[in-house]
Amino acid sequence: MCTSILYSPKDHYFGRNLDYEIAYGQKVVITPKNYEFEFTDLPAEKSHYAMIGVAAVADNTPLYCDAINEKGLGVAGLSFAGQGKYFPNAADKKNIASFEFISYLLATYETVDQVKESLTNANISNVSFAKNTPASELHWLVGDKTGKSIVVESDEKGLHVYNNPVNALTNAPLFPEQLTNLANYASVVPGEPDNNFLPGVNLKLYSRSLGTHHLPGGMDSESRFVKVCFALNHAPKDSDEVENVTNFFHILESVEQAKGMDQIGPNSFEYTMYTSCMNLEKGILYFNCYDDSRISAVDMNKEDLDSSDLVVYDLFKKQDISFIN
Ligand SMILES: C[C@H](CCC(=O)NCC(=O)O)[C@H]1CC[C@H]2[C@@H]3[C@H](O)C[C@@H]4C[C@H](O)CC[C@]4(C)[C@H]3CC[C@]12C
């Protein structure tokens, strides 16, 4: 499963944990302004905003999992298995194939408000990129550098765009249900709780942080949603880039899936394959992966953004332990 956040200490940082059991050959991919996008049912875009993110590249086409553009818009696709439903093309609507959703939005729009507007009469269509690349059931977090985000979900009732007051997204259930569930944790506090439970009884607070005792710690989507909302909302807001990037990785580490914790079959485990953190102001993608906890970075502005060729860097690396003696 996955977790995505928008963290806004000073600059704005957008990214996610991608949790799964098999990789799709994802890379760090920069799509410059003059790479020609040929969309399935939308007009081709010869010239558009440049973008950087994590994508599988098939037939020289970037299939983005999460990315931002040069204007500071970010979009991440997360599994919505069991709840998501795409529909055939509708004649009176803007039809966007699910695998093009991220690249279309980032090529075209600058802000969350523009995206909202553009989706008022849209349909996420159920076409596949290729025979062996079927559409995967996703929903999306879309954020920008105003610090605002929305969630886009296509379910059996159609397309929904929800304002996101918590700037986080995990997986099923439906987003409004995830928000409703947060009320069950209204008494959680980062530190010592007030004893409203038995005010007349002297409860010995035997440990620090008993106010977080009822925070869920499961790997399931609902637990991760509650926990990451708490971590994000209480994270420090520094002004230094390195401190804020460090905070971002720690927020997502609070819901990280270590191998062994989420078994999906005999000897098969879902785990956090990579974490991405993209600075919406600076166009820098920071990342690490399960086998290499060191943070690496790619700066889109160091590339020729007027080019028409994709720029691709490795995402999955080997652990590089710094021996001190
Ligand atoms: C599997 C993950 C979602 C992780 C997750 O939540 N898994 C747990 C679960 O299924 O519950 C999704 C997120 C983005 C998806 C990819 C992107 O949408 C891009 C691309 C789209 C193609 O239609 C299918 C392949 C491909 C490359 C997708 C494969 C599945 C990915 C990688």
Automatic annotation (TrEMBL):
Enzyme class: hydrolase
EC number: 3.5.1.24
One GO MF term: choloylglycine hydrolase activity
Gene Ontology annotations of biological process type: lipid metabolic process
Extent of the signal sequence: none
Catalytic activity annotation: cholate + taurine = taurocholate + H2O; taurodeoxycholate + H2O = deoxycholate + taurine
Keyword annotations from UniProtKB, A to Z: Hydrolase, Lipid metabolism
Occurrences of domain Choloylglycine hydrolase/NAAA C-terminal (ranges): 2-313
Keyword Hydrolase: yes
Keyword Lipid metabolism carried by entry: yes
Listed pathway(s): Lipid metabolism; bile acid biosynthesis
Family recorded in the similarity comment: Belongs to the peptidase C59 family.
Official protein name in the record: choloylglycine hydrolase
Organism whose genome encodes this protein: Lactobacillus gasseri
